[in-house]
Amino acid sequence: MIRSLAIAAVLVFAAPAYAQSADNRLTLTFETGAETGAVLVALYDSEAAYEGGQPTRVAQVDVAAGQREAVFDLPAGTYGMKAVHDVNGNGKMDVNPFGMPSEPFAFSNNAVGNMGPAKWDRARFEVAGATAQTIRIR
Amino acid sequence: MTPTRRTLFMGAAALAAARVLTPDRAYAAQAMAASADWALATADVEGDVAPRALTLVHGRAPAGLAGSLYRNGPAKFRRPGGASQHWFDGDGLIRRWRVEDGQATLAARFADTPKRRQEAEVGAMLMPGFGTIADPRARIGSADDASPANTSVHKVGGKLWALWEAGSPLAMDPETLATEAFVTLRPDLKNMPFLAHPRIEPDGRIWNLGVGGKQAMVWRLAADGTLEDAELVPLPRASYIHDFSATARHLVIVLQPWVHARNVMPMSAAFAWTPEAGTQVLVIEKADLTKRRIYDLPPFGFFHVGDAWEEADGTIRFDLCAHKDMDFAARGAHEVLNGVPLGHDPAELAMVVLEPNGRGRLERTGVVGEFPRSDPRRAGLARRFSLHTTGERADRPLASAVAVTDWRSGRTRSFDFGPGHVTDEMVYVPKPGSVHEADAWLVGPTINLKAGVSELHVLDLMHVEDGPVATWRADVALPAAFHGNWV
Questions:
Q1: Which domains, and CATH codes, for chain A?
Q2: Which Pfam families match (chain B) (predicted)?
Q3: Can you give the pLDDT at residue B425?
């Protein structure tokens, strides 16, 4: 699922995030463990989308160029975020020979799963007005 | 993880008694007897143990004995909101027994793992393990998040590596015992497993496996911990592999008929005992991992093997502690944690012989034995001696004795500390300047149950039956540990 998210993010990220309402601006700041590559971000607006559908927004944070933030102007509502740090810049989340992720990943609320991706109930958060989260991805 | 030892438990008398008592009455009676005896072996330690001097209570420090015995084993199993369900799942406590200038000291610190931090914060044991299922509150993004780092400890380069078997090595400072970070040997191999029983060649090169179902990563590291090679090899079956062996030229992987059969937790419930499949031994050439042979042996279970060697005619030999089955792993180690052995045969020391003609056999000794160790200078080479624990019984789940088996004479000599002690694995320490295999000490701790403290003992390999030449006593009791090394 993480892999599909990463691919989706890469495919769609060319579509610019467009302003919905500057009154509901979400700012995600990523604290990375490496200074290379990019953080691929996918934002979901429902549990169904988060657990297996399409993201409502995607973004790419060019870590190598010094970027650390992704900013979204959104309708107020409930969201969940998945991110992967593509450290080596090959456009995907790498896995080790046993299929486990070998590049850092993170979820909104800095949620961690229980032997799998963090579920919606741990990752969901409200966007209402200016909203910010700092995400540790290392 | 670990485990070891096992065993033990089942004397004929206890068994006979259990047959006439109802199971719950027998259970309760054994629980009372057991908790009165060796509960210190699986007791909780509440915090790090600051460095402290030990008191010499017997003999004298052998001239020339200087170094540190680093050992690792679980020492925290219970928190108010929930407890580990299996002996192998407690938090690793790294102990350093140091002998220097005739004096001995002890220090110990817990591996400061993500597991331990989360569990301390919540006040409950949360993480899944060998025999424990995950608490719904656990936050687990990788196997390392669940690692108790509790199985062994090696000095690699300038660091200690606390080892588990399903995750990465955990680097620690050998002086302060402070935890540093999980070791990633190469970025693309992050989060790959690394067994707690690497095989170390006499020049320091490290071979190890990381096991995942019917595949194993073969790790080859320089003595300083630098990765030299990592290559996946297929396995003929998804056996539980805690330990493996090696000759100078081969990796020797014993595949017991305790095989992954279902995707359930805990891990111990995912394996099935299939004796009809027998036990296999996979021999792989170190120089070309595609060159392999498979030998068939009768069924037995095991945790631990000794260093292997190859004779001039190509015959491969290694010692191994054979269990009748793996019931101890599946059930017994739950019981040990609660002081309630229900009856398990102890392991028997045996020699595996793999002939060049493709035939293999298991030569049993009739000697109870676990935790085999030998001369690290002869790892992979012909040798004469195995050190091991002995004396485990059905009604005494942990060893009280240590032994030296001489494979040339077939004789085993032992020293029993008595029912008032639980013995740990002891390691082989060469005497300074010696080259002969017999010129060595056994060094290792026991728990003195009556005094309620841990002790460190030194025995002479050639006079092991005479008991310790030196014993130091601590002012604290540390629970039984699994494995360690003399540095």
A1: 23-137 (2.60.40.10)
A2: RPE65 (PF03055)
A3: 98
Q: Is B197 annotated as belonging to a binding site?
A: yes
Residues A51-84 have pLDDT tens digits of 999 999 999 999 999 999 999 999 999 999 999 9
The interface predicted TM-score of the complex, written ipTM, equals: 0.85
pLDDT exceeds cutoff 70 at B4:
no
Residue pairs spanning A and B at CB distance below 8 A: 49
Residues B86-128 pLDDT 10s: 999 999 999 999 999 999 999 999 999 999 999 999 999 999 9
Domain B23-486 CATH class label: mainly beta
Query: Distance from A88 to chain B by nearest Cα, in Å?
Result: 10
Distance CA A88, CA A99 (A): 17
Please report, for chain B, the start and end positions of each structural domain, with discontinuous segments joined by +: 23-486
pTM of the model: 0.90
> How close does chain A come to B141, measured CA to CA in Å?
6
Which chain B positions have a beta carbon within 8 Å of A103's beta carbon? 190
DSSP code per residue over B65-92: --EEEEEEEE---EETTEE-SSGGGSPE
